[in-house]
Amino acid sequence: MTNRLIHYLEMTGFTWMVPVVRLVRGENLREQLGELFNRVGLPLLAIAIFLLLWSALAAQVKTSLGDLPGPVQVWEQAGNLYAEHQAERGRERAFLERQVERNARLLEADPNAEVRWRSYTGKPTFVDQIFTSLKTVFAGFVLASLIAIPIGVACGLSPRLYGAISPLVQVLKPVSPLAWLPIVTMVVSAVYVSDDPWFQRSFVTSAITVMLCSLWPTLINTAVAVASIDRDWINVGRVIRLPLATRIFKIAIPAALPMMFTGLRISLGIGWMVLIAAEMLAQNPGLGKFIWDEFQNGSSNSLGRIMVAVLAIGIIGFLLDWLMVTLQKCLSHDKTAAQ
Q1: Do residue 193 and residue 290 come from a single domain?
Q2: CB 238 within 8 A of CB 157
Q3: Are residues 55 and 169 in the same domain?
Q4: Percent of the chain with pLDDT over 90
Q5: Considering only CA atoms, which of 45, 5, 52 is closest in space to residue 24?
Q6: Domain extent at residue 22
Q7: Are 55 and 174 in the same domain?
Q8: Element (H, E) at 266
Q9: What residue ranges are annotated as transmembrane (predicted)?
């Protein structure tokens, strides 16, 4: 039972809890306490030193908006942002309740009356902006993966195809998202025209920008991984006359999964960074727009609120990478991927 629990903890990245489980089942106390200190104590100590240095140095920096906020001020702003979110949700609930009561009165007076339902159009809060950015980055990442993985597998199986598209990949790969954004904005504005669009144009623009910048690591890693497979495995599949799809899904992709996941992790990280820059530059909804709006606002709390957003971006980036590593350990034969 405990062995299975340790296995799940290691698979999901909660390795710091493994010494606790081993202590509970009575293993060497000194050895497990040492392991617990290495996995929990040392990181906490590093964080404490960082916070002390931040607190001491922040007070020495004077900006046009006042002192650079320290950890305490940033924590206070995080609480304010959450309180604003709760207040906004309260206003939304009150709006919807008033709408329900009004329509109920109309229907009571006239059962055939035509009632209208309106969506709440309040200002998006910091929490709303986080979820908007997450939806956008996942849309761009999924689109990039759907394009990059099939092309990468095809390139890995066919050196001629890889040689043909390699110059294009090498030219397009280093293009900055700031260069793509104007082109994508113009193309989406020209092509994505509808009276009743499924998605907002700003969402489509940001998602396509993320896709264009994040597909290259997955494509290259997939192509190299498939090309590196032992050719005997592919040849055996040919000898026993396995269909091409079976050779791809039963031999090529499983053998290439570790490197493919490395490319996917890099792509997701790039996509997250690109998205924030794209939202900031194009003023599309999301965390990037939140930061830019606070910078333009210029109030005494703006710096603290921007630093809350910066920390949120870092923590979400860490969680996205943890998610990909856990997924890799669950799906791939390689269980040694580092968190």
Answers
A1: yes
A2: no
A3: no
A4: 32
A5: 5
A6: 1-60
A7: no
A8: helix 253-282
A9: 6-24, 36-57, 137-157, 178-194, 206-227, 263-282, 303-325
